Amino acid sequence: MRNPLRFRQGGTTTEHMSDCKEEARVPAADEKGAAINNEYAGVDTSGVDPKKVLMKMDLHLIPMLALLYLLSFLDRGNIGNARIEGLVDDLKMTGPQYNWTLTVFFFTYCVFEVPSNLILKRLRPSIWLPSIMVAWGTVMTLMGIVQGFKGLLIARLFLGVAEAGLYPGVAYYITMWYCRTEAQFRQAMFFSAASVAGAFSGLLAYAIAKMDGVGGYDGWRWIFILEGILTVLVAIVAFFTIYDFPETAKFLTEPERAWVIHRLRYQGSKDSGQMVAESENFKWKYVREAFTDWQIYLGLWMYWGIVCPLYGTSLFLPSIINELGYTSSTAQLLTVPIYIVAAVLAVAVAWFSDRSGQRSPYILACMSAIAIGFIICIAASAHGGVPGVVYAGIFIAVCGIYPAFPGNVTWISNNLAGSYKRSAGMAVHIGVGNLAGAMASNFYRATDRPKYLLGHGLELAFVTVGICAVLGLRMNYARINRKRDQMPMGEFSEAENSEKGDRAPTYRYVL
């Protein structure tokens, strides 16, 4: 269907077809962001087909993003597969030492996320993302030749540095192309690659472990070496296949580029009755605002409630299943159906969430499933003798984790306005949030096997706090929206509202 909307800035005629502002003619630029708008001022977009444009963007952007994240998640989590193939014994490591190799990854991973996101915006995604990919692929390959605990520890530290920019970078990159009510479906499509990575990791580890002894290397070493080389090869391709920004996208026509850019800039004020463009200028105050925004810190508890179980299961799922009495090869294969179902659910839930324009109800439902799954794990493990029930509990928990995660990231990104504030804010939210990985790395201790009651209990505690945080965010967003609905229009100029970002009276939070 062609875009029928006619909107004249300052006029009275509007015809809405979607949440994002769609215009028949792009108005002249205001003082803010003039560099972007002037190029497209007056461009006729009446012939733009929104569905066709979104389909073109999906086909050109999402497959490569999904592949990048699949390899990222594969490379950071394959140490769990290597463990049950003999890594700990061969390197003469203790249980606590192994946990430290998991933990240190998140220290550097968290520290480098904010600067990486700012570099991504200032540089170009097609250069920055493949470059960090080459770096972590190289580190991963070298992990295959470490000779002891210290070598593995240092390698994991550098892996955290190299991988830090990928997830927050890609999550932010999606917001530079898609509107708020389209973002979760795209976030889920690329994040579901993590689910596929979980399944693929088990299958790949099972196959690669058969190379034990080839070239004088153990099977677990080949897991690191081959997966690292694969990452470097894909990174080389990514230099030529990642697109930078809508303004330079050659697969879009000029009217399509104008349509995409304009609706992104005006999406936050769509419900206020006054068009206000997002600020595209860099100012350090936007970074400071990101570090002091209440919603990011309340959102962290929601993030931890999802990411603690995410990392706990991704790092220890093969070991947990192995301790239920299954052989290492069977344990690798039993992880596959869990992740496949989780990937399908992540995309399905995101589709319904985007269609409804709501985030919190779906996040709450998914987090409730996580809680139920761990309650089953605790009850069945305490009873003993029912490995199938423990497996079912983990299955349910993972099927809640993977749909909840893209919803949580999208919700916070939806409610941060101003390009650079969103860039820094998402990096803070994801970066500090990923400290949960450092915590979760120590939940499942070797001394607690085979029941892992402490680990399951800690995961349940974080999920419970996370559910409370979701409720807190929802209530506060609704309260602020109601307050802004009652405020008089025209109190601030468009330039002032643009400067205020999501704190402007014209801005409405997504619930």
Protein described:
- The protein has helices spanning 34-37, 50-83, 87-90, 95-111, 113-122, 125-143, 149-163, 166-175, 183-208, 219-241, 254-265, 284-292, 294-323, 328-356, 360-383, 387-414, 419-433, 435-440, 453-485, 494-500.
- With 511 residues, it is mostly helical.
- α6 (125-143) runs antiparallel to α8 and α8 (166-175) runs antiparallel to α17.
Keywords:
511 residues, mainly alpha
Give the low-confidence spans.
Answer: 1-19, 27-37
- SS-based class: mainly alpha
Strands, count = 0
- Determine the strand fraction and express it as a percent band: under 5%
State mean pLDDT (0 to 100 scale): 84
SSE order:
HHHHHHHHHHHHHHHHHHHH
- Total of helices: 20
The N- to C-terminal Cα distance equals: 29 Å
- Percent range of helical residues: 55-70%
Dominant shape:
globular
Radius of gyration over all CA atoms, rounded: 23 Å
Largest sheet: none
Task: Please give the structural blueprint.
Blueprint: H1 34-37, H2 50-83, H3 87-90, H4 95-111, H5 113-122, H6 125-143, H7 149-163, H8 166-175, H9 183-208, H10 219-241, H11 254-265, H12 284-292, H13 294-323, H14 328-356, H15 360-383, H16 387-414, H17 419-433, H18 435-440, H19 453-485, H20 494-500
Helix pairs in contact: 2-9, 2-10, 2-13, 4-7, 5-8, 5-17, 6-7, 6-8, 6-10, 8-17, 9-14, 9-16, 12-17, 13-14, 13-16, 13-17, 13-19, 14-16, 15-16, 15-19
